[in-house]
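TL;DR need structure tokens for one chain.
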Amino acid sequence: MSILELYQTILQRKNNPPQGSYTARLFNEGEDEIAKKVGEEAIEVILAAKAQGKSRLIEEISDLTYHLLVLMALEEITPEDIQLELEKRRK
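>> reply
TL;DR here they are.
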């Protein structure tokens, strides 16, 4: 699944929350909980990078990416918004 496909799935779960969905639960818990998860995952990426090997680092980067996409969806920030910002910085 691409990052864009994952983002679309997250948006679907935000707009039509299925019963038992972790993503829907995060949206229900709100910005503070989502931001907390982003912070936790960022710390886990750092720890994995320091001593847990490439495989674990990939897992933790994936977790962080997912939670960042949830935060973006909550705040109505699209991957295209991020791409535009990165392009501005490149110039």
